[in-house]
Every structure is written in structure tokens, then in C-alpha cells.
Amino acid sequence: MTMTKPPADEATVTPSALRGRLSVTQKATLSRLGACLAGSVVLAVMIGDQEGSTTDYGYAVRQAFGGGRIFVFLGLGLLVFFGLTFSTRLVPYLTRPGITPLVSGVAAVAAGLFLMTWYDGAGVGDGKFGGVATAIANTPQASALTAAFFGWLAYAALVGILVIAAVAIVTGIRPIAWLGAALGVFVAVIAWQAHSDVVDIAGGIDHSLGYGAASIGYLVMAGACVMVATSKADVAATREFVNRVLGWRPGLVLVAIGVVLGVAAFAVARWFAPGNARYNTTFGDTSAVFDPAGLTSSALAYLDYLGWILFAVSAVLSLSGCYLRNRVLAWVGGVFGVAASIYTVFVMYKFSDLAAKLSPNDGGTWQNLGTGGWMAGAAFLLMGGGAVVAATSERRADASDAKHRNGESAVDGEQMPPSGTAVKTKSGLNTGFLSAPGASRSAVFLVIAFALFYPPTATSFWQKVLVTEIGIYVLLAIGLNVVVGWAGLLDLGFIAFYAIGSYTTAYFTGVLPIKPPHWLIMSPLLAIPFAVAVCLLAGVALGAPTLRLRGDYLAIVTLGFGEIIRIVANNADGITNGSRGTAVDPSRGVNNVPSPEIHVGPVNIVWGLNQLQYWYLLLVFLIVVLLAFRRLENSRIGRAWAAIREDEVAAQATGVNTYRIKLLAFAIGASTSGIAGVFFASQVGFFNPDNFVLNNSILVVAYVVFGGMGSLTGAMAGAALLTWLPEFLKDQVPGADRQMWIGAVVLLMMIFRPAGLLPARRRRAELDGLHDEDSSSVRAVPASGAM
Amino acid sequence: MTEFMNFLILGLTRGSLYALIALGYTLVYGVLQLLNFAHSEVFMSGAFGSYLVIHAIVGTGAGTPGWQVPVIILIGIVTGALTAAAVAWALEQVAYKPLRRRGAPKLAFLISAIGASFFLSQLAGKLFNRLTSNSFPDFFNIDSVAFTIFGANVRVIQLVDVLAAILMMVMLDRLVSKTKLGRGIRAVSEDAPTAALMGINIDKTISRTFIIGGLLGGAAGFLFGLNFSFGNTMGFIPGVKAFAAAVLGGIGNIRGAMIGGMLLGVIENLIPTAPWVSTPWIGTKWTDVVAFVVLVLVLMFRPTGILGERIGRAA
């Protein structure tokens, strides 16, 4: 641990240093101005299409600085500078109630209007708001309201509500705020209506989410206005408010989301959508289509009336279970919701299968469905999940409720004056709103519902991204988290194990030039144990000689190992088919890796080209690995890893065999990427050494640290976010620039939140220190022990 | 023998450039105990910076009078070094200083440096171009031979590389061992808190260390670009090799970085092409593997590198 004197900021200047005080603040102001202007110049350069060429290197620079753009950005930079410099005068306004939701609402609307797609069928360009607006302007059959919304209303409402809310906040005149709230609700409804108008006119299947973000954003802005209008406090206490909403009645938020989703599913969403506009039917019409077709009576009953009844019963059960905190009722609601969810999927299978048999051209089984059924399934699951949360966290909820009653009885409305010390201790080790009772379980159910029911409704592009990018890298990040996050060993060559897993699969499926004995050639899923074993051995083989090295040496050795594996795969033509990989080549006996298959008794599943199948297979892998690792985290081994990470010498002194435990971390991490390798190889079929470049190893480390070292949820969130981002950016910036933006995001994240997105509680304690805040700010040089 | 000498000369050329880059890694490692992942982009920026200036001076370079050539090379080295020093300074201010203030964990520094590295290399790609093989104007014949030794040609440019590198390394060695700034750097790398108590401004020392590393790396970037080719992703491989070289010589140790760089350059070019191992399997495509295998072997038998870490560093 190395310590040095704290940087001299204004707060710590002692009276003896008063003489230099003015110059210190002036200096700080100047450097802030410089930073703001430099930042705006960099942003101006980053935006846009400009790119130099060998013949004209200055082209990009002229583009960036020649036009008016540079002045716009310099102006923005100055705005930020003044905002920061006079922040003391702004803060009283910025902490008023309603500001936080207002800002989030504006952000959501802006994302909806400028970033997300509004219609992803053909004919409207990129399908963003602007593109749809142009198309609508040329479409006479659009209603006046729709045309107005796409023409000017959406922007006008955004600015209008913002101005109204700002005026209300500054002046404190409540009727103005109510006006803003009414406007927000009104526009939210129009946004939804305008979008369904677009879908009706265009007639295709629509997967876009922009209208949802915009509607929710307008609603949130309306809610912010309501808060402004009703609050009696001067200072907002957003964290307390959110804590209370989530913690007050655990699971209620989840059930509410489920009910809203369910209403949308049963009332407006398309259930059957074979791609032909005439047949796209909502829930109410679907039974009419399948009644004469001879659908199974149980499925027909659901479509006729049972769906509505199930939904109503589930909503009532879950709501009352949560609201009354009746454990029995909640359990019944939970079981009912989950069962209804399964039943919904069964019904969808039945009519989808029937339709596929009747008219094969409209898409096969599962292919001819709209979003409605999946939404209903998610709604049932969320309602059931909320009830389960309520049933399982009742005791903790009671305790916290008692605390609320005792500690905050004086609070009226939604606001609570911040009580200095109490808030401070809360912000210390708590992970914010996630610490509210039942909140983390609610989050788990949300993620489950999303993972199960979102992918079928996504476009095929996003399904592919989910499988080949997000899913696989989440699995890899979970594996690397063992090595980096838990054991604190920096491994910069993790992709090597992934490569070994992939090549092992290729070997045992008999598609490489070098083949196993013919009786050993097997289907990919059976190769899992072999791939895991080989990766385990590789991990031990790499770790055994190198794990006695210190952190940075280990990093460079693993990096070298990763490169060696890739180059060997590239050069060892006779074994791996070199740079051609597993491309089909009968003359060398090389073929694509076959798809997975399962043939056990009556179960016959063959994975084909449909990405969804792979997604659910991957989900199974993920859940198995996750369950195992959750057990591991707090086991004797997991605690030994934490001990080594924090202080290796101390761990050794207390009897931990550090070498063996570190080796174990390496082996377990490697075997996880073996599973990922099997999945990858059998999913893509064709791969070559270019899939395993050093950059990918570094990216996986970045995912783990970005998400929050040492926390499973953090590693998964980091990997999911950073693999999703480039695909999302595809629609926003020139493709070649994506890595630049990602680099910037990672950099900013580390500057402002060095512990990562969702840091593990133990690591937060290491970082923040268990004592006062000052101890962390005086560390000029990072402690050499902690990785 | 000719073959051997050819590869030895190539190895020495590359090795001297590795050594220059490795010094940047080792200096930063000395004061911060951190792997400065973005140093490869500092190196890259040197090539682009000097290119822009040289291009402005000589245009396509055709018909440049002979007496101007040394001046232009000197200008290239200086502008490359200055550009890279500016980038290195900005890098420290943006990607390292805020994290130091917050006492972030060590890996956070690495990740922020990785982010900065992606950002810088792609920004350069956006600004200039994304080709991997840009080349400097032909202001002199790059193939002109200085002298011949054992039948192997030593090209002028190779001579310039090696001599410039050695000169700069000697200057750095003087700087660190004789000047006040050098004493400060050594003191901070020995024991930062105590150095602070002795009146050394740690922030300034660290940022000057980055600048020195940037100067050397930028000069190497220019020389590398002149000798081979340059592009926005040119930094990655030499960067990794140079870090390996720094570790090979003993990280934190300045002379170690020089020796490690030279050694790595020579080994990776000699071993895969040497006659005694010439089978169909071996060839230049194994260059990188040899480099890393040697590194792993050295670390296994001498974990602190050839010259060892500086005293006070091992912990």
C-alpha cells in the first residue's frame, strides 16, 4: 500500500494556504475551461462520416473544423463549463423534486426519437423516427393526428413539457405542472396510437421498440410534472423514493409491469402473423381463424375465453398476494402465473403448428407467430414472479416496513428530507436501489422473462447477435470472472482456451484433417466433456509453470500463450487446416462442424439454421454454469480465492495452498470457455484462427472489469452491454467507428466508476474502504497487491 | 553466413525500435507499477505526426536534394517525438490521473488504458485512413546501402535506426541517473509516499515520465514508419513485443529494457530462420511464436527478467 498526500482541492485547503487559494481556484477554472473545450473539439472530430485518404490526409480535419459543427460543439463545451463553474448556483434547482424523473424521461424520449427504430419493415429507410416521418408525410391515408405527431408534435411536446416543467420548478406554480402532466399523458397515448397506425398502414410484422421508449418517456415526464405539482419538500430524495417503491411491497412493481404487458398483449398485439397482412390477427380474432381449422379444444378454449380469464385471475391473485402480503395467496399466484405462462406457450405451439401444416408457405412452426403470445407469456411469468418475490421476502419486507414506519413517520407525500449521516452511510456499501427488499429477486425474474420471451419477437438480426455475440461472450465472461474477478489473476490470453475448446469439438466431430478413430467421432453435444477436459488440462499446463509469477508477468505470459495458440492453429496446416479453418474441403477431409443433435428415446431435437434454437441451448448452458458458479463463489474455494486476491501472503500464512487454489481458478475458468467453444464451433460450423485473435481476449477482460470485477451479475451485465453496444451503434455511426465509441465508453466508465457497472459487494468494500472516504482519495499510486 | 547476417541486421533494427518502445513501458511501470496498454498508440501517433509534417515539407518527396535528407530525418524524429509526447501527456491526464485520484483498483487502470488505446487508434483511422501500409514520401532511396558486412547489406536507414536508438537510450540513461528530474523519477519508483515526503511533486513526476516515454516512443514510431510502413493499427504488435521485451530485460529497469528489446528483436528473427533448425515447419511465420516462447522460458527460469527488477521493486 502506497500513500501520498491528497491532491490539493479547494475543500482541503487549510487557512495557512490561503495566500495561494485564489490562484488555485483560478487554475482549476482555467484547466476546466481547457478540458471542456478540448472535449468539444474531440467530440466534433468523432461525429460524422469524415475520413481521410492516402491522397488527402487533411480531409477529415477540414470537414471537422471547416463547417459550423466545430462552433456548435465549442458552444456546448462552454455551456458545460459554465454549468460546472456555477454549479453552486444551479444545485438548489437541480435537487428539487421531479428533476431526476424529468431527466430520465427526456433521455427516454430522446432515445426513442433519435436512436431507436419505429418500424423495421421495408420501405422507410433505416426505420428510425425521421425515416418513418418522411414516409408518413407522403402517405395520405395516415390520420391527421398521426401525421401531426410525426411531423411536429413529437418534438414540440418534448420541448414543451420540458419548458413547462422547468418553469414550474423555478416558479413553483402548481397548475402549470399539472398542465405539463396532462400534456405528457396525452402525447404518450398519441405516440402509441401513431405507431399502431403506421403498422396498420404498412401491414408487416413489426419488432421495433422506439415507440415504447418514447411513450414511456412521455409518461415519465408526466409523472415528473405530477411530482413537481404535489411535492411539498424543497429537496428531492430520489434514492429513498425508489427504495421505498421497490421495498414497500416486494414484487408489486414486477406484477404491475406484468399487468401492463398483459393488457397490451391481449388487447393490441398481433398473435398470429404469418407475414401476410390479411391474416395478422390480434388475440380476439385469432380464435375465429382457427375455430374452423380444427384446433385442439384446450388451445381453442384458451383463445376463445380462457386466456382472458387466466389473465384476470392471475392478475387478481398476484396483486392481492403482493398487496395484502398474504404468503399463501402469493404462492398460489406465483404457481398460477408460471403455469399460465407454460399453458400460453403450449397454445401458441398448437395453433402455430396447425397453421404451418395448413399453409406451409406462411412460415413453419414457431415462425408464423406475432409478438402477442410471447408478451402474454412474459406477462404471466412476471405476475407469477412478482408473487413469488412477495411470498419469499415477506419477513425482510416486514422488517424494513417497520423501519419505514418508525424512522420516516414524519414524512408526507413522496419526499423525505435527506438526513445527513443516514444518507451517507447508505451510499457507502449499499448498491443503491438493488438493496431494497426483493429488488434483486425481482431483477432476476425480469431477466428470466426477457431471456425467455424477448428473443422470439426480435428480428433475425438481433437473434443472431443475441446468440453469436451476447450469449457466447456472457458465457466467456463468467468463466474469466473466476480467474480475474475472484482469484485476481490477470489473464490476457483467455480466448486461447476458447480456441482449444472449438478445435477439440472439431476434432471429435471428425471434421479436421487429423481424425480420431472412427468409433470416437461423435455429435458436438457429446464432445462437451472432452472439450472441457482438454481445456482443463490446457489451463493446468499453462498455469503450472507460470502461476508462481507475479501479476504483470502472468499477464504477459498468458498473452503470449494466446498468441502462440492462434499462430500454431494458423500454421499447423496438417492438424488444424491452417488459416482455412473448417471450410468444406473434401480433398483434405475437412468439413463444417455439424450442428448439435439430441436423440434420447422419444426426444429428437436437431439444431438447424434457426438462431432461436441455439439461444435456448445456450440458455441451458448458461443456467447450468451459473448455478454451479454461484455455489462456488461462497464455498471454501471461493473464499480462498478472495483471500489470495486481497493478500496472497496472508492467505498463505493462514494455510491456503495458494498455488493449487490459483491453478484451480485457471482450470475452472478454462473449462468454462471449453463449453463456450463447443457451442461456438457447432453453432457457426465454419471457423478459423481469425476468430481467436488477441483483441478478443482483451475485450473479454474489458467486459469483466467493465461490469464489475468479482461479481457474476456484473460480469454478465458488462459482457451483455458491451457486446450489444457495437450492434446498436451500427445504426447510429459509421461502422468503422464503432470501436472508437466503445473505447470512449469504456474509458469514461473507468474514469467515473472505476469499480464497474455492478461491483461485487466485497470489491466495493476493498475499493471504498470500510473507513471514511478520505482514505481512498489519498492513494496516488494504486496498491500493488490488489489487481 | 550472408543469410545469418541479414537476419541479424534485421533483428538489430527491429530490436532497437522495440527497445525504444519498451523504455516507455518500463518508465511508466517504474513509477506506477502499471502496464500502460495505450503506449502502442502513443507510438502510432508519432508516425502520423511526423508524416504530416514531412509531407507538408517535401510533398511526394521526389527530387529532394541529398543534403536535405538528414535534416528531414531529424525533423521527422523531433516531430514524431513531440506529437507522441503530447498524446502521452493527454493520455495520462485523461485515462490515468482521475483514476489515481480515486484510488481505483489496478485492473481499472488497465481497462481505461485499453479503452484509450481503442479510441486513439480508431480516431487516427477516422482522421487519416484505415490502411495498414501507408508509407512516408520517397525523399531518399530507402534501399541505399551503407556498407556490406559478410556479404550482407546494411542499409542506411537501418544504420540510422540503430544509431538514433542507441543515442536516445544513452541520453535517457544520463537523464535518469544524473538530473534532478531523473532522481525524482527514481525516487517515485522506489517509494512514492516517501518521495512525496521529500518534496517531490508526484503528479508532475508521473506526467513527465509519460512525456519522456512518449518522446522515445514517438521517435520509434517515425523510424518504424520510415523503415517498414505505418497505419492506425501499427502499434499493437510492436507494442506487445516491446512490453515483452521490457519484461524480458526486467521491468522497471531501464538498461534491462534496452537489452531486452535488442535481444528479442535478434532472437525472433534469428531462431526461426537459422540453418540448424531449417525444416519445412520452421520459417518466418513462426517469428511471433519464438518471441513468446523465449519470453515464457526466461520468465520461468528467471522470473524477474535478465537484469532483474530494480532494487525496491520486487515485492
* Helix and strand composition category of chain A: mainly alpha
C-alpha Rg of chain B (nearest Å): 19 Å
Mean pLDDT of chain A: 81
Mean pLDDT of chain B: 84
List the helices and strands and how they pair.
The complex is a heterodimer of chains A (787) and B (315).
Chain A: H1 21-46, H2 59-66, H3 69-85, H4 87-94, H5 99-115, H6 129-137, H7 144-171, H8 174-202, H9 210-230, H10 238-248, H11 252-267, E1 270-272, E2 281-282, H12 283-290, H13 297-324, H14 327-358, H15 372-392, H16 394-407, H17 420-429, H18 439-453, H19 460-486, H20 495-508, H21 528-546, H22 551-571, H23 573-576, E3 597-600, E4 603-606, H24 611-633, H25 636-646, H26 648-653, H27 658-684, H28 694-707, H29 712-729, H30 738-752, H31 761-768, H32 774-777
Antiparallel strand pairs in A: 1-2, 3-4
Helix pairs in contact in A: 1-3, 5-7, 5-9, 6-7, 7-8, 7-9, 8-9, 11-13, 11-15, 13-14, 13-15, 14-15, 15-18, 19-24, 19-27, 19-28, 19-29, 20-21, 20-22, 20-27, 21-27, 24-27, 25-27, 28-29, 29-30
Chain B: H1 2-32, H2 39-58, H3 68-102, H4 106-127, E1 145-149, E2 152-155, H5 156-178, H6 180-190, H7 192-197, H8 202-227, H9 236-249, H10 254-270, H11 287-301
Antiparallel strand pairs in B: 1-2
Helix pairs in contact in B: 1-5, 1-6, 1-8, 1-9, 1-10, 2-3, 2-4, 2-8, 2-9, 3-4, 3-8, 5-6, 5-8, 6-8, 9-10, 9-11, 10-11
What does the model show?
Helices cover 67% and strands 2% of the residues of chain A. Chain A has helices spanning 21-46, 59-66, 69-85, 87-94, 99-115, 129-137, 144-171, 174-202, 210-230, 238-248, 252-267, 283-290, 297-324, 327-358, 372-392, 394-407, 420-429, 439-453, 460-486, 495-508, 528-546, 551-571, 573-576, 611-633, 636-646, 648-653, 658-684, 694-707, 712-729, 738-752, 761-768, 774-777; strands at residues 270-272, 281-282, 597-600, 603-606. Chain A has a two-stranded antiparallel sheet. In chain A, β3 (597-600) and β4 form a beta hairpin. In chain A, α19 packs antiparallel against α27 (658-684). Chain B is built from 11 helices and 2 strands. A two-stranded antiparallel ribbon of chain B has the order 1-2. In chain B, β1 and β2 form a beta hairpin. Chain B is globular and about 55 Å long. Chains A and B meet through α1, α22, α28, α30 and α31 of A and α1, α2, α3, α4 and α7 of B.
